[in-house]
Structures are given as C-alpha cells and as structure tokens.
Amino acid sequence: MKLKDLGEDALIDIIAAAYSPATGNGIEKALGDDTSVTTQEGSRLSTLVTTDTLVEGLHFKDSYSTPYLIGKKLLSVSLSDIAAMGARAKYFLISLVLSPECTDDYVKELYRGLNERAEEAGVALIGGNTTSAGNGTNVMTSTVIGEAQAEKIIYREGASAGEDIYMTGTVGDSALGLKVLGEDLNEPYKDAVRRHLDPQARSEAGALLGERSLATSMLDISDGFMKDLSRLTTAGKVGAKMMLTDLPLSTDTAKYIELTPKGYDLLLSGGEDYELLFTAKKGKAMDIQSISKELGLRITNIGETTSEEEIIILDHDNKPIELKFKGFEHFK
Amino acid sequence: MKLKDLGEDALIDIIAAAYSPATGNGIEKALGDDTSVTTQEGSRLSTLVTTDTLVEGLHFKDSYSTPYLIGKKLLSVSLSDIAAMGARAKYFLISLVLSPECTDDYVKELYRGLNERAEEAGVALIGGNTTSAGNGTNVMTSTVIGEAQAEKIIYREGASAGEDIYMTGTVGDSALGLKVLGEDLNEPYKDAVRRHLDPQARSEAGALLGERSLATSMLDISDGFMKDLSRLTTAGKVGAKMMLTDLPLSTDTAKYIELTPKGYDLLLSGGEDYELLFTAKKGKAMDIQSISKELGLRITNIGETTSEEEIIILDHDNKPIELKFKGFEHFK
C-alpha cells in the first residue's frame, strides 16, 4: 500500500513493529515521545535527542518566507521538542540538502536566522552536513541535543484522571497564518502570519515545568491541537473534557472565530502551533501561574483529564462539538 | 553566486564564517571533523554525534539498489564517521522524507536493512521522524551517537611529519562499482558493485585504533582518496609521499587498472570508500598489524607524512603522477 493511502500514524506503527523496543544500554526512552532519552553510565544527567525535517513546498515556501525566517523556524521546531520534555537544549546540528541553484546569500541568511535563534536559546552549533539536492527540492534537518536530570523529565504518558490540562500561548494562530498566505481573506491577521513564519519554542517554560516538577505529562502541539491532545490522552490512558470557550485565542484568532462559522475546525486541526500541552495535579495552579508571570507567557487551564478515554469539547450550549478535521496528516 | 558554481568546500567555509567556533559548555570539537565531541559535566566519557544524508538519484537509485541495501548504507555512512574518531557507536536516529507514492513494503525493507546493520554494529534505534516529500524525491538522514574516553579520541589534525600513513581495506572499489552500474563495461566487477551498494563501516578497527592509542590523526574516505588525504594532511599541516604501487587494490580494481590506462583517476577520486585513513608514529606498525589480524581486515602502510605541505604520489618510474580529478564535489 502507498504511504498516501496509509498515512503517517500507520507508517510509524510499521516502523515501531519493525523494532522490538530498545532497552538497556542506558536507554530510558527510545521511540514514542518528543525526544529520545539516554543516560551515560555514571552520569548525573540524561541526554535528549530530537530530529526534525522541513521540506520546501510543504513546511515553507520561498514565495512567502525568507531564508532568515526558515533558519529560525528550522531550529525552533526541534527546540520545541526538547522543551516538551521539560529539558534544556544545549547543542544542535544542521543537515542541509540544497539545490545547486541555491545562492550563497540564501545560505548566509539561513544561518543568520539559525544563529539568532541559537543565541536566544543558548544552544551551540556543533556539526552538520551539506549535500546537493540534485534536481530535488531543499530539505533541512535539525538535530537538537538537550539535557536534564532523569527524574525531572516529563514524558507523554504520565497523566492520570482528574488532573488539570494546560496549554501555553494560544491555539491555531499558525494555521490561520498559513491560510492567509495561501488565499485572499478580508482580514490580514498579521500576527498569525508571523506566528506561522517565525514560531517560538517555549523553551524556558518547558524547562521550568520540568525543573519544578509541575507537569505529569507533556508534548508540544505540532500536528494540530486535537491530534496532539489525543496523543497525550492516549499515552496517559485518560480522556479529556473541556469548554471550547476556555481555549486561549489571540486577537487574530478571536476575530477569525467571530467572522467564521465553524472557524474552530481550522484552529484545532492546523499544525505548527509549537505550544506546550501538559497535565498537572490539582493544586499546582499557583506554581504554574507564577511561571506564566515570570516569563510573561500566557498559560491557560483548558480543562481536565477524565477516566473515560474520550475527548469531549463542549460548546457554549454545553453540547459536544464535532470537528471536521482531526489534525495534520503527513503523506495524505 | 550559486552553489553549483561555488562547490561544497566554499559552502562549508561560508557556514564556518557565519559562526565563531563554539567553545566552552562541554564542547571539545564543533565543526571541522567527522563528528562533534562534547563532554557532559562530571562524565567520564565524551559524546560524539554525526549526521549524514542520502538523496535519491544522487547517493542511491531505486533502479539499481533495493530499499534493504539503502537502509544498510544509510546507517553505515554515519557509523563510518564515528569509527573515524576512534570511538564506538551506541545509538541512532533516522529522519525520512518519503514520497507519498512510496509503499509500506519499501519502508519495511528499508528498516530490515537498518535493523540488520544496527545489530551487526551493536547500535540501538532511539528516535527519528518521518515527513512527506510532497512532489520531491526521497531524502534520508541518519544521526549516530557514539562515545569514547576524551583522551582516546582521534581528530583529523594530529599528524606530524615523519609518520606512517595507513588505510584500511582497498581504494576505489565503490567508484568502480558505481561506474559499472552507470555504463556497460566489459567486466562485471561484481565485488566492486557490492562495495558500492553495501559499504561496510570499519567500526571495530576504528574503535580499537582509538582505544589502543595507535593513530595520531584519522578520517574516513568518503569524498575520494585524494580529497580526503588532502584534508588529513592540511589539518595536520604536513604533506604526504607515497608510491602508487603501494595503494591497496582489490581483485576487481587491480583488474580495472590492468585494463584501463589512467584508471587511477577514477579509483583515487571516486567517493564512498568508507575506509579509514590514518597516520601513526613509526614503531606502531606491529600493533596496527595485530588489529589487522584480529579483524581479518587489510590495513596497509601506504606512505609517510612529510614536512613539505604537498602530496606526492610516485608511479613505478618514480615520477609524480598527475590526477585529472581531485575528488567528489558536491553541488558542481
């Protein structure tokens, strides 16, 4: 069967089935989370590694982005994975597959973006690799290495029923921004466009949630709120219940919802939010809000986990909503 | 200027210039060697990371390879980098950009190859990422993580004048194999074809050279013997002098040389040998040969380093040879 008929989740199942889960040899976590976690013999700290790929035409287009912004985004997507483990990023490597028609100015701008994001995040470039794309398109892979104390790392599967569910920032801005770039809308939604082109990893929030042991489970929203919420609850063998009106919106997405019937379809299914979605024990609310204050970053309690393994989102009439799209599907 | 006019080395210079060399924060080596080397605070061992990318149509073709062999090769190329540091590989991650037209059988075969090579090398899959290639070609990236005691790691720049130069295996088989796949030759050169499609990383030889402190500098031959020899001597600020007849040939390459005037042009410039090229103090010859015996792997003393920073290869008449090609040039 072709991948376009199978979809990404089935592909990941195939890959997972090809491997018995790696254990021993210092491995704390192999597949199935935002990053791998390994611990060197005799070391106080665990090492986290993640790798992400951006493909021209799919994850970025030269027609509406710039190499500078692509560089920033390339690093951000992997920084976000490290943050989602409650860890701190330390080093990165960049693997570039570039068209021979690419210019040196393009590469310089790409690295200016990488460099700027790296400095903000306090990570150092330690390696990489460049290859010609031949007749193909540009493909860029970032690998980020982080570290954390083993007992502070936050995995996907730690949630229990009756906990609070939180997310950082706002939902769906990137999806709205992408929509603006692809079609003519009456509103410019400039902040949403910026959020799509220059996503920020929530590095400090993630690290603090880990270091202060505030979250029971966490991931970053990269393939759409609904899809990633479903991954988090499935991993924790819990369900979730929330009010649609509790989901945090920006000025742009609030306006979009106001103007668009069924607008939530886009916001809850579009990818690349790069916000953190996590669960926490009741009673941690004040500690979590103090991180929000320290960082000037919105962190919203959006609902709670339930023992029934289903996700229920209630609209303002207290009726469960039905969404047309479930999240971003690679390959399909 | 376009990358096809600049070439890979100029591109790497641009990238290096965009960055002041990263130091501190546990970094022993960032750019400029086969892998990065970092050491976690308080750890006895250093961590080595390398990333390599194979592009369909350039590094492999479905018309003459199989996904099983591509999987093996994908891992081998990164294992070879770890070996070239005198270290042992431990974990790997795979990032796949696959066409939606790709089948699940293709992916299964790819992972069967990866799995087999991983078991041989004793490395465990700990992570990765899959993305659609859209309308583009398949691009596959392997990231391998290894470890070694910091003081045992072998860098590119350690050579001094008056040392012996060695290489493992034989030279140019992969280039000959690729030639066979691309055009009709009178001889089938089957072993050379196999060497191109299924290169072996010299993992155990590399690790033992490191652990026994036998090499002063080392790299793997991936972009052609001449180009990589020149990288090794440039890094060590030395030259090299050798006899053409001392270069180790396989049955296939020896026959090719016999039948082909100027046949060395191909063998010394073609990429993807994945043999180790290293320098060692005089007096280490017996220790090096005992590794050769232990592993049943040819290791040949091919010449010596000189204080004049030039590479001289003498033919059977003691005349310096001139090569038409200098090595594999990405982008050009």
Write up what this structure looks like.
- The structure is a homodimer of 332-residue chains.
- Chain A is of the alpha+beta class and 332 residues long.
- Chain A has two domains: 107 residues, PurM-like, N-terminal domain (60s Ribosomal Protein L30, Chain: A, 2-Layer Sandwich), CATH 3.30.1330; 151 residues, Alpha-Beta Complex (Phosphoribosyl-aminoimidazole Synthetase, Chain A, domain 2), CATH 3.90.650.
- The first copy, chain A, has eleven helices and twelve strands.
- Chain A has a six-stranded mixed β-sheet with strand order 1-2-3-6-4-5. In chain A, strands 8-10-7-11-9-12 form a six-stranded mixed β-sheet, with helices on both faces.
- The two termini of chain A are 13 Å apart.
- The model of chain A has no long low-confidence stretch (mean pLDDT 92).
- Chains A and B meet through helix 1, helix 2, strand 3, strand 4 and helix 4 of A and helix 1, helix 2, strand 3, strand 4 and helix 4 of B.
Number of domains of chain A: 2
Radius of gyration of chain A: 20 Å
Largest interface (CB < 8 Å): A-B, 79 and 79 residues
* Structure summary, number of beta strands of chain A: 12
How far apart the termini of chain A lie comes to 13 Å
Strand content of chain A: 15-25%
Known CATH architecture of the largest domain in chain A = Alpha-Beta Complex
SSE topology string of chain A? HHEEEHEHEEEHHHEHEHHEHEE
Number of helices of chain A: 11
| Regions with little confidence, pLDDT below 50 for 5+ residues of chain A | none
Mean pLDDT of chain A: 92
CATH topology call of the largest domain in chain A: Phosphoribosyl-aminoimidazole Synthetase, Chain A, domain 2
DSSP helix fraction of chain A: 25-40%
CATH class of the largest domain in chain A: Alpha Beta
* Neighbour order of strands in the largest sheet of chain A: 1-2-3-6-4-5
